[in-house]
Amino acid sequence: TAEREIQHFFPLQSTLGLIKPHATSEQIEKILNMIKEAGFDLTQVKKMSLTPEQIENIYPKITGKDFYKDLLEMLSEGPSMVMILTKWNAVAEWRRLMGPTDPEEAKVLSPDSIRSRFGISKLKNVVHGASNAYEAKEVINRLFENPEEN
Ligand code: UDP
Questions:
Q1: What CATH code would you report for 2-91+126-143?
Q2: If you take atom 13 of ligand 1, which residue's CA is the nearest one?
């Protein structure tokens, strides 16, 4: 397939993925299946309640934005699933599987994406992913004690 051909051009990479606390257990199960079907290795996964400091870390660029308070509150309302996802070109591939930030936009542009299927609003859009490889590495190192271990 085209996907098979393309993957030779990209290095194996890990990214940080997160399933937000508002996801139901049924949705979590479906999302984990989508992740596996898309060819990611779920290198590590754990359920954790994020501290404000960890949330700031995960979202380094948006601490000053007007929706930050809502985001902090929403992510503090229960445990999240934090994941190390490994695949060729993982950062971009995970963002593609998530779909656009706004679920309404996702329904139009990327109907098979996670945010299209399970997103409720811009804020409650079920999943997060690192924006780039540098950020992915930084955040993975902070959230996982032995990030290299499978
Ligand atoms: N967000 C929001 N309102 C906005 C933009 C973003 O509530 O207008 C929230 C949303 O939960 C989003 C997160 O802030 O996932 C981070 O925003 P970013 O622009 O980094 O989007 P993402 O990388 O999550 O697609």
A1: 3.30.70.141
A2: 123
